[in-house]
Design goal:
The chain is of the alpha+beta class and 103 residues long. It has 2 domains: 1-47, no CATH class; 48-91. Helix content is 41%, strand content 14%. It has one helix at 49-90, and strands spanning 3-4, 14-15, 20-21, 30-31, 36-38, 45-47. A two-stranded antiparallel sheet has the order 1-2. Strands 3-4 form a two-stranded antiparallel ribbon. It is rod-shaped.
Length: 103
């Protein structure tokens, strides 16, 4: 763990360099992908703290977007109700048939 053998004839394994990982029976060190760091024993990669910050920020941004959309929908519904109430107050509804006027 944490070492590699560059040649089959190597008697002592070479220690894996910093920032790389060396799986079992590897012949060369491998670099971790972006936003990942080598484990303490250099046997694999694990997510760095930046990954968790990006995930948390994305969740907060998504939640904020949802809240903005819900707020705008509620505001629009209230506006539509107010417009309908004002329209009904100012423009009387016509009846279905003729209105008797007296003569």
């Amino acid at each position: 763990m944490g070492s590699y053998c560059p040649d089959e004839r190597t008697s002592a394994p070479v220690v894996c360099p910093f920032g790389s990982y060396c799986p079992a029976q590897s012949s060369s060190p491998l670099t971790c992908p972006s936003l990942y760091n080598a484990n303490g024993d250099h046997s694999g990669c694990s997510p760095s703290s930046s990954v968790f910050v990006i995930i948390a920020f994305s969740c907060l941004a998504g939640l904020g977007l949802i809240l903005v959309v819900v707020h705008n929908l509620r505001r629009r519904r209230t506006f539509d109700r107010e417009v309908e109430a004002e329209t009904n107050r100012l423009i009387p509804k016509t009846s279905a048939g003729p209105i008797y006027s007296g003569l």
